[in-house]
Amino acid sequence: MVAYGAEQRVRVPALRARWLRQTFVHWPFRPQAVQALLPRGLVVDEYDGTAWVGFTPFVMADVRPAAVPASLPGLPTFAETNLRTYVRREDGRDGIWFLSIEVACPLMLAARAVGAPYTLGTLRVTTDGDAVSYTGSRGAGRVSYRLDVRPGDPVQPTERDVWLTSRWRAYTRRLGLLWETPVEHEPWPLAGAVVDVLEETLTAAAGLPAPLDGPVVHYSPGVEHVRLGPSRPLVP
Question: Beta strands 94-103 and 118-128: pairing type?
């Protein structure tokens, strides 16, 4: 069994939330192609010599400051979609680098203050029986996606599954500095998934070439206890 719990406690979170109905679509790339998109101070993380880029649409539910109870009516719940890759700092600490973040909630644009690449878009997550459908578009629709999946049976995660899905900090860049945002939640419950439709222009818009192979896909019903810590600048 592979251990995949959070690497640290976020004792004083800035935000709490639930991440629900999340699909992980991962493509392999040559490391040089991904490294070209990273800022100074970050090196592409590799698994068996390959870089990976993840397309991860989900529902961000009950977003609130740490002191606000989840039972409070009217908490924001909205769709979000990340295009992300995996990186390491010079000291070896790994994390996520976001190539783009599409979001349906204007409040999240405040995270641009620390360099998070949020873009307001038209996003939807819908279900029909066991099937889950994600659609989104940015601006006039030149950047868009559609993903239809049918979740399968739960899986016991392999080492690669954990490497792809379980990361505990995100890096951004703003004002010439790297910023780190820690995250804590319970392990992802993962299942297999069959893709019925996958159309997207996010990867091309980010400057990526064609991937080396087809995608690796997982589905998760979600995690209920997400704690996002305050972002802090990293002094060189």
Answer: parallel
DSSP conformation class of 47: B
Q: What's 15-234's CATH class?
A: mainly beta
3-state secondary structure of 223: strand
Burial per residue of 119-139, b for 16 or more beta-carbon CB atoms within 10 angstroms, e otherwise: eebebebeeeeeebbbbbbbe
Measured in degrees and rounded to the nearest 5, phi and psi for residue 107 equal -60, -30
Strand blocks (E) in 11-113? 15-29, 42-44, 51-65, 78-89, 94-103
pTM: 0.96
Of 213, 211, 202, the closest CA to residue 84 belongs to: 202
Q: Where are the domains of the chain?
A: 15-234
For the chain, 236 residues long, the average pLDDT of each consecutive 10-residue run is 72 96 98 97 97 98 93 94 97 96 96 96 96 94 95 96 96 96 97 98 98 98 97 90
